[in-house]
Specification:
The complex is a heterodimer of chains A (113) and B (112).
Chain A (H helix, E strand, L loop, with lengths): L3 E2 L4 E5 L4 E7 L6 E7 L6 E7 L4 E4 L2 E6 L4 E6 L8 E8 L8 E2 L3 E6 L1
Parallel strand pairs in A: 2-11
Antiparallel strand pairs in A: 1-3, 3-8, 4-5, 4-9, 6-7, 7-8, 9-10, 9-11
Chain B lengths: L4 E3 L2 E4 L5 E6 L6 E7 L5 E8 L2 E5 L7 E4 L6 E5 L8 E8 L6 E2 L3 E5 L1
The chains are: A mainly beta (113), B mainly beta (112).
Chain lengths: 113, 112
Amino acid sequence: DQQVKQNSPSLSVQEGRISILNCDYTNSMFDYFLWYKKYPAEGPTFLISISSIKDKNEDGRFTVFLNKSAKHLSLHIVPSQPGDSAVYFCAASETSGTYKYIFGTGTRLKVLA
Amino acid sequence: EPEVTQTPSHQVTQMGQEVILRCVPISNHLYFYWYRQILGQKVEFLVSFYNNEISEKSEIFDDQFSVERPDGSNFTLKIRSTKLEDSAMYFCASRRRSTEAFFGQGTRLTVV
């Protein structure tokens, strides 16, 4: 029962270029989406979120795009930096409920200097 | 910057023993959660807690698990009789109303 999927387990990008991380979901009740970054042996760190009433949210180098009809969201990082190398998880929740997060399996991003 | 604090960072326990994982959420937060991540797998929801009671729990959160907020600051997860498959990173999270959740650094539980 994979309600949130990240189909790319890993991604390598050159420093300065754009990183695009993708996430798909199946539950149409999800209306709040987030991206978290995680280093080994640390907890997830919040990056950016988007409500289903929007299709784009931007914060500095990070932009999240939401395509509700395709049940797809993506995280763009521009420009990518070596410090961005980490595992990125997308998460989804229903704001009418307890706001529990359903996480994807993660994408390991490696930014090459 | 306020943060969620978890102790211990690593706990090794024998199978069948009880463990208590401790968390201090951010002080003005109202909603509390436990998640876990088995090595190499995704982060999974265990339980949510609001207004001094469990608001939702997953299938994983069976009768061996319990949560408490005994004193208004700590939030604990107890596993009554640990099994090998309970070995995982356990993350506590908290949030205010309508905001993102902040996660602690995690407790690595190793059951031997």
